[in-house]
Task: inverse folding
């Protein structure tokens, strides 16, 4: 039964005629059934029409995988018409995730070697779009041959296919690197464009290729010069600029070649100056070239004058009326802000103005750039602008803006009070968009600033009284009121208008928070605990608080219920302990409860870097920064005592944290000294994860009749080892087996040098001062191997 | 590198979709929808650049688009491409379409989507810019179209010849049969 099949145009007409989605689906399903039937036993001459229809419905989103085999058949056919549709189908329907795609490799090979030019073009196009790594390996030689063909049409396609092949199979760079230099001598713009792209790809992938291609810099400069100085050419001109695409591509390559290379940069200086000043910027094409030139100038080792010119060009573009130009100017400045900070700073006022843009893309760029421009000297002014922006910015930028402000405030806050004010402002304006650790950071900050407790609790109380919906703010406020409630009620305060706060008001506010449906369970927890703390801070009787606490004893939320019951018990049975339990919290150390996890992480980090032969300076400084972060505001008492700058030492000191001591390795103890009942023992500990570190615990015991006093032990090791002595547990050993003195030595032995140890003891015994210096013999081999 | 080229109309109906990186069919349709969603929200006089949606690679990639009457031309590119350059490329593409179709309009794109693919394949290959000289592109397309047409003509001629040949053959056969039977 021969069903007359629709031509493509008719099918499209029918689909467009469908009124509803369901109708469209019906039409398409019917037609797909026809297409399937026709694939099975229809006229092979019309196969390409069927596939064309299938590709159309595929674009609309309907399944078309049953057409994959037809693509293969069509590609293998000898007709150009078939091949055209077949290759298009291959590009749209096949990709490297389907096994079927390898089947076209043979057809492509035949077409590449024997086909006419248009067919070769089709094959190359398909190969560069969906060619997988296996296909590329198989066909590399064919493509290489085509690079040298006379026809520019095929050559330019072969070059870009080579780029794709290198991306898929980096080893093929060796195959495609040699022809490049010769190809640069061609005059055909398509070939030049492809070659420059190919060279760019090769240089980005391997430093040797980069070095190799530095020698073509003069030639590239020559090509660019010709393009710039040649007059109007109808062939390649876009709005009066001679082939801007090629110019931009060459400039990009020059940027890569000139980076960090004096000689190449010098060759380019004059040319770049020429391009920068001569390009016509009245139309988009000229601006594209100019921007690329600016980026190149800033990236290579250009002269100072040239750099100033470049930044000024960017500054000029910031004032351009065309929004696209402003966008690209902001993007370019963002790229430059790391390397040329001061130059970009000059344009800060304009950048800040751009924050007011209605265009979301522009304001986002302006925000990123503004945040990057904040530094110690302009932080107050910038924060003002950014906070004003935060109030009016579109919602998708809020989170970025808020976290950016908080970060900048942390880095550059001139005073603690300003810092607290800033965070407070962010929490009130955009509280729902801040990150989770903002609450912890703020409580940490307030806790550390004792002089500002009263001020903070005041401001937080006022903020809370106005609005209890912003959860992070409510949490911090509740915590503060709980901690410093007594300061809140004192009322005598110079800096803000005196506010008489009654106890009842405070309690009422906290109750409101507890009952509000807007409060998260965590917030309720904060509020309940705050109420409890106030029971010791306030002067009135605690009936109200007791009432609330007992009500929440039957709350449905597990956490709240538990807290409430505990607090209630505190009131009833342990009232005498209440004041002690609820007194002001000591400063929470930032490292606090996460110390164990962090210790584990750093241990792993230390191991990883111990595997590397020599930890680099930057690694060490990064690790040191980590330490700084830890004890920044809090004055961590557990800061390791010796932080010498040598990289090896820094790594090990990170392990000096209050975690459980490493399990003792079975190295036997050693008795090293005995005199009149005073004995010195050494025990050795090495952990398998950190073989360079040896811990020695010396124990001094006294079995004689007289006390040992003023006991000092000092040690020395060979130069290749590092020794660190920790403070001894004491310097007196009472007589007759009294509490021994222990002291910890830490020895770093990364090179596994033989361990030698010299000890010097001084102490008073039997009324005499004793001094002994000796070298420890018989040190067990396991202690250093 | 150009990651994808999409053309869709003001209602989001795709008129051309070409991806230069492997995405599954579902992902492709989702990308088209997401891109339409992002681009249609834009006002008329804002800049032509947007951050890429999550599916297409997030903020590393950009959407560079131009709105012509009822169609959006969207190129999704990564950070190595020059934004202003791509704007020009879109312009060249549209002008080439104009030349090939003679005052191109949306209907041309609807009914000849395969031809649009062919034209695009002469300009952008594997995600990289191949040729921007309009004359060269149009010359190539014309040559290929001629090749197709001549093939079809040849085939029609052969079929016609073949059917004539068949007739001749039948006549000879019947003559032989006749002579045979006469001999018999």
Result:
């Amino acid at each position: 039964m021969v069903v007359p099949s629709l031509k493509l145009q008719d099918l499209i007409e029918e689909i467009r005629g469908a009124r509803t989605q369901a109708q469209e689906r019906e039409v398409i399903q019917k037609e797909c059934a026809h297409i399937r039937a026709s694939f099975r036993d229809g006229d092979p001459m019309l196969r390409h029409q069927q596939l064309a229809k299938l590709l159309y419905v595929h674009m609309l989103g309907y399944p078309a995988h049953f057409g994959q085999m037809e693509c293969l058949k069509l590609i293998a056919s000898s007709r150009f018409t078939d091949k055209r549709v077949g290759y298009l189908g291959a590009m749209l329907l096949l990709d490297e995730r389907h096994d079927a795609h390898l089947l076209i490799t043979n057809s492509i090979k035949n077409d590449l070697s024997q086909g006419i030019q248009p067919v070769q073009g089709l094959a190359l196009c398909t190969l560069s779009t969906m060619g997988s790594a296996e296909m590329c390996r198989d066909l590399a030689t064919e493509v290489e041959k085509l690079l040298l063909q006379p026809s520019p049409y095929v050559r330019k396609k072969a070059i870009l296919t080579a780029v794709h092949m290198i991306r898929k199979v980096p080893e093929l760079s060796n195959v495609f690197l040699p022809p490049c230099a010769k190809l640069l001598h061609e005059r055909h713009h398509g070939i030049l464009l492809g070659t420059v792209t190919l060279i760019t790809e090769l240089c980005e992938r391997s430093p040797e290729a980069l070095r190799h291609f530095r020698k073509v810099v003069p030639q590239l400069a020559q090509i660019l010069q010709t393009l710039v100085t040649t007059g109007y050419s109808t062939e390649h001109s876009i709005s009066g600029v001679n082939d801007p695409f090629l110019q931009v591509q060459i400039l990009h390559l020059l940027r890569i070649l000139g980076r960090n290379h004096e000689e190449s940069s010098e060759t380019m200086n004059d040319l770049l100056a020429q391009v920068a000043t001569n390009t016509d910027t009245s139309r988009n094409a000229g601006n594209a070239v100019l921007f690329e030139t600016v980026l190149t100038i800033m990236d290579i080792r250009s002269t100072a004058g040239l750099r100033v010119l470049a930044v000024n060009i960017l500054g000029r573009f910031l004032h351009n009326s065309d929004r696209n130009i402003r966008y690209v100017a902001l993007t370019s400045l963002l790229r430059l802000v790391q390397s040329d900070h001061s130059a970009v700073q000059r344009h800060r006022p304009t950048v800040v103005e751009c924050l007011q843009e209605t265009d979301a893309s522009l304001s986002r760029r302006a925000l990123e750039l503004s945040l990057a421009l904040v530094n110690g000297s302009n932080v107050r002014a910038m924060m003002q602008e950014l906070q004003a922006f935060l109030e009016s910015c579109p919602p998708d930028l809020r989170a970025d803006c808020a976290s950016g402000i908080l970060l900048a405030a942390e880095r550059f806050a001139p005073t603690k009070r300003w810092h607290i004010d800033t965070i407070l402002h962010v929490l009130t304006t955009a509280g729902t968009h801040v990150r989770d650790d903002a609450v912890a950071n703020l409580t940490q900050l307030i806790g550390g600033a004792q002089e500002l407790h009263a001020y903070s609790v005041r401001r937080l109380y006022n903020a809370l009284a106005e609005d209890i919906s912003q959860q992070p703010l409510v949490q911090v406020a509740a915590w503060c009121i709980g901690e410093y409630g007594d300061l809140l009620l004192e009322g005598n305060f110079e800096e803000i208008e005196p506010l008489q706060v009654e106890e009842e008001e405070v309690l009422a506010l906290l109750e409101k928070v507890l009952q509000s449906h807007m409060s998260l369970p965590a917030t309720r927890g904060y509020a309940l605990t705050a109420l409890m703390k106030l029971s010791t801070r306030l002067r009135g009787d605690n009936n109200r608080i007791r009432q609330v606490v007992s009500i929440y004893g039957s709350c449905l939320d597990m956490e709240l219920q538990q807290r409430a019951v505990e607090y209630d018990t505190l009131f009833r049975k342990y009232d005498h302990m209440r004041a002690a339990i609820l007194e002001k919290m000591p400063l929470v150390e930032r490292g606090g409860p996460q110390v164990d996890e962090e210790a584990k992480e750093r241990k792993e980090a230390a191991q990883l870097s111990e595997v590397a032969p020599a930890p680099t300076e930057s690694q060490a400084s990064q690790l040191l920064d980590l330490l700084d972060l830890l004890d920044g505001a809090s004055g961590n008492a557990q800061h390791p005592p010796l932080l010498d700058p040598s990289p090896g030492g820094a790594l090990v000191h990170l392990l000096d944290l209050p975690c459980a001591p490493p399990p003792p390795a079975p190295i036997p103890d050693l008795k090293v000294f005995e005199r009149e009942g005073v004995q010195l023992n050494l025990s050795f500990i090495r952990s398998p994860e950190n073989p360079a570190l040896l811990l020695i615990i010396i124990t001094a015991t006294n079995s004689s009749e007289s006390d040992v006093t003023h006991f000092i032990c000092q040690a020395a090791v060979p130069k290749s080892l590092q020794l660190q002595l920790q403070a001894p547990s004491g310097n007196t050993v009472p007589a007759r087996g009294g509490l021994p003195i222990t002291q910890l030595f830490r020895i770093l032995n990364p090179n596994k040098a033989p361990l030698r140890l010299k000890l010097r003891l001084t102490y008073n015994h039997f009324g005499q001062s004793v001094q002994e210096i000796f070298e420890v013999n018989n040190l067990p081999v396991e202690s250093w191997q | 590198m150009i990651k994808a080229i999409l053309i869709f109309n003001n209602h989001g109906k795709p008129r051309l979709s070409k991806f230069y990186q492997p995405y599954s069919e579902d992902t492709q349709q989702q990308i088209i929808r997401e891109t339409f969603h992002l681009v249609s929200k834009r006002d008329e006089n804002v800049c032509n650049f947007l951050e890429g949606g999550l599916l297409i690679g997030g903020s590393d990639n950009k959407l560079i688009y131009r709105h012509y009457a009822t169609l959006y031309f969207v190129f999704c590119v990564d950070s190595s491409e020059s934004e202003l350059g791509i704007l020009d490329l879109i312009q060249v593409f549209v002008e080439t379409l104009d030349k090939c179709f003679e005052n191109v309009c949306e209907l041309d794109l609807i009914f000849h989507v395969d031809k649009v693919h062919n034209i695009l394949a002469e300009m952008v290959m594997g995600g990289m810019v191949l040729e921007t000289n309009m004359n060269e592109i149009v010359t190539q397309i014309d040559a290929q179209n001629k090749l197709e047409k001549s093939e079809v003509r040849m085939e029609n001629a052969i079929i016609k010849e073949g059917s004539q040949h068949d007739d001749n053959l039948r006549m000879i056969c019947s003559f032989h049969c006749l002579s045979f039977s006469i001999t018999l």
